[in-house]
Amino acid sequence: MADACARTTGGLGVCLTSTGTAAGNAAGAMVEALTAGTPLLHLTGQIETPYLDQSLAYIHEAPDQLTMLKAISKAAFRIRSADTALSTIKLAVQTALTAPSGPVSVEIPIDIQAALIPMPTDLRPLAIPTHVPSAHALDELAERLAKAKRPLLWLGGGARHAGAQVKRLLALGFGVVTSTQGRGIVAEDDPRSLGAFNLHKPVEQFYQTCDAMLVVGSRLRGNETLKYELKLPRPLFRVDADASAEGRCYQSDYFASGDAALALDGLADTAWPTAWKASSRWTRTSPPTCAARMKSP
Description:
Blueprint (H helix, E strand, L loop, with lengths): L1 H8 L3 E5 L3 H5 L1 H10 L3 E7 L18 H8 L2 E4 L6 H13 L5 E7 H4 L21 H11 L5 E5 L7 H8 L4 E4 L22 H7 L4 E5 L19 E5 L13 E4 L2 H10 L2 H7 L11 H6 L2
Parallel strand pairs: 1-2, 2-4, 3-4, 5-6, 5-7, 7-8, 8-9
Helix pairs in contact: 8-10
């Protein structure tokens, strides 16, 4: 439910579980949230601090629970004193919402749960850092994209917040295909979009009629790329807030690290769209639909 809340609202999902078995019961849903990059805060209990990590077979103790939580979360924290409870939860929220987003677990020992602390004077959340792409990288990417006559966007979950920016590129003639996690960024009845119909043979054939693909905020997962054998258009460009995504799954012809919305706005703001539309490449009064493109190369 917390995962669905985060996906449908674009905000933070929150769930609470009790200690030990209940924390373990959340594992399946947490792995799903981790796979989807869902910003989620998982608050769970832990046994009283005097008995922690001593193998005393204390009731409800799950040996090495924190390590288990780290395996199913983007990050996991343990609150070690009542004085640091608020700062730890603030850090967990910031971590969950920072791209690449994901679920974060926080253990709260029962004695700390029961502790009384003075009313905090500052309940404001920590600022969410935004990875600003470099102007040089965007200029270089724009110059390369300007050579394409039939460019295609592949949108992943990392571009969920970039719907307005995607529309700017659609207006310039880009087609769109999405991963499962990118569904809804563009309405799936939009004639310029193939939705998540991204890995079947007719689409692979269509990809070969496109002369550039820009992958934004997607991991190009194995289940959506025929185990990385799907033939994608070349040149293949990528934009991702996770700098370690460069070269992962597919070699990129150019990679720009940064927030999806900022990068797409930057591309739409460069000089090349005006030159592109004024050139012989832009011969239609409106961009061709993906359906029309699939009918005729």
